[in-house]
Amino acid sequence: LGSCRRRRLAPLNEDNGRFLLLAALIAAYLSAGATVFSALESPSEAAAQLRWNRTLHNFSRIFNISLPELRAFLRSYEAAMAAGIRVDALRPRWDFPGAFYFVGTVVSTIGFGMTTPATVAGKVFLIVYGLFGCAGTILFFNLFLERIISLLAFIMKACHERQLRRSGLLPPNFRREPAMSGMGSLVGWKPSVYHVMLILGIFAIILSCCASAMYTVVEGWNYIDSLYYCFVTFSTIGFGDLVSSQNAVYQNQGLYRFGNFIFILMGVCCIYSLFNVISIIIKQVLNWVLKKFECRCCPKCHKSSARLGRRNAITPGARLRRHNIAMDADGQYDSDTEGRRLSGEMISMRELTASNKVSLAILQKQLSETANGYPRNVCINTRQNGFSAGVGALAIMNNRLAETSDSR
Questions:
Q1: Distances (CA, A) of 94 to 102, 160, 239, 362, 387
Q2: Domain positions in the chain
Q3: pLDDT at 361
C-alpha cells in the first residue's frame, strides 16, 4: 500500500507517461527509418559518386584542364544554381508571381528551397514575416480542421438518423420532437474517428491522383514522381528536388498556376487534417499500452486510476462520494450519514442537496452550450483551467470525435 501511495504521488502521471512513451516510440521509429533509408540509398549514392569521379577525371584528361581549375568552375556553377540561375530558361524568381509562390511556401512551412532571399534586408524581413505568417496559417489549418470535421459530423449524423429511421428505432417526427429521449435519441452522438480517418484518407488519395495527373501532363514527370511530389508538398516536407510551375512558359499558363495553387492549398489542408486524425489513433494506442502497465497491486489503485481516467466528467453525487471517502480515511463520519446508515434510510437530505446542485450546474452548462450552437457532452471539472481541454488541433478532435472523449 505504501508503494502504491508513492506511485500516486510520483510526477510520472498518465500524461507524462504517454509523453515519454511517445518520445521513445518516435526515437525507435527514426532509428528504423534511418536504417532502412541508409540500406536503400547508400549503395546508389556510392555508385553515383564513383561515376562522377570517373567523369571528372576523363573530362580533365580529354580537354587538358587541371582538376583544381575544373573544381573551381563547378563551385561557381553550384553558387549560380543556389541563386536560381539555370542553363535552361526559367521564369523569373522574384517577379510578383514568383515572390507570391515563395511566400506561400514560407507560411505553409513547405519551404522548397529553390528560392531564398540573398540580401540581408530580405533575410531579416523573412524572419518577421514568417513568424506571423506561419502562426496565422497554422490557425487557418486548425479552423479548416474544425469545419471539415463539423461538416463530416453533420453528414454522418444525418446518415445515422436515416439508418435508425429505416430500422424503426427513431420516430418519423424525431426532428420536430427532440425531447423524446427514450426512443433512440441521438443526444451526445459523435462520429467515429475511424470513419473520419477513412473519409479524409479517400479524399486525400483522390486529390493526389488528380493533381498527379495534371503534373504528369503539364510538367512532363512520370506518374510516380508526380505522386511523390504531391505527398512531399501536401505534407509540407518540401524537399525541393521536384518543384512545379518553374518553367518560363506553359500552355494555358494562367489556368495551370491557378490549378496548382488550388491543389496545393486543398492538399495541405486535407493532409493536415488527416495527420491530426492519425495522431488521435496513435494516442489511443498509447493509452492502451499504458493501461497494460497500470498498477494492479490493490483495489484502491484501480479506483484511483478509474477516477483519473474520467477526471473531466463529474456525475451527480461524485463530490459527495469523494468527500465520504476522505472522511472515512480520516476516521470521521458525518452525523447525518451515520444516522441514515443506522435507520436504514436510502438517501439523506444532505446528499440530495449536493446532487441537485451538481445537476443544476450541468443543466446550466447544457443550456449555455446549446444557446451558443455548440452542444457537447456534459462535462464539468472543478479544477478546470484554460488548457484542461487541450490546445489546438488535438482539442478540436477531442471535442468532436467519439472515441477521444471517452479516453480522456
A1: 9, 52, 20, 58, 43
A2: 13-87, 145-167+191-296+353-364
A3: 56
Type of residue found at 226: S
For the question of whether the overall pTM of this predicted structure is more than 0.90, the answer is: no
Q: Which pLDDT does position 27 carry in this prediction?
A: 92
Is it the case that residue 359 has pLDDT exceeding 90?
no
Give domain 145-167+191-296+353-364's CATH architecture: Orthogonal Bundle (1.10)
Which one is predicted more confidently, 201 or 116? 201
- Residues 6+ away with beta carbon under 8 Å from 283: 18, 394, 404, 407
Strands (E), 271-369: none
Work out the pLDDT band at 86, boundaries 50, 70, 90.
confident
User: Which amino acid is present at 199?
Assistant: I
Considering only 95-99, 236-240, 250-254, 355-359, which range has the smallest mean pLDDT? 355-359
User: Residue written as cell 532502412?
Assistant: 36
Give Cα separations from 229 to 226, 232, 268, 361 (angstroms).
Answer: 5, 5, 12, 53
Contacts of 55 (CB under 8 A, 6+ apart): none
Burial profile 310-348: b = 16 or more Cβ within 10 angstroms, e = fewer: eebebebbbebeeeeeeeeeeeeeeeebeebeeeeeeeb
Q: Which three cell numbers stand for residue 158?
A: 444525418
**What DSSP string runs through 218-274?**
HH---HHHHHHHHHHHHTT---SSS-SS-BS--TTHHHHHHHHHHHHHHHHHHHHHH
Nearest Cα neighbor of 25 from 290, 306, 230 is: 290
Element holding 64 (H helix, E strand): none
Summarize pLDDT for 323-334 with one digit per residue, the tens: 454 444 444 444
CA distances from 270 to 108, 157, 257, 284, 366 (A): 13, 21, 20, 22, 32
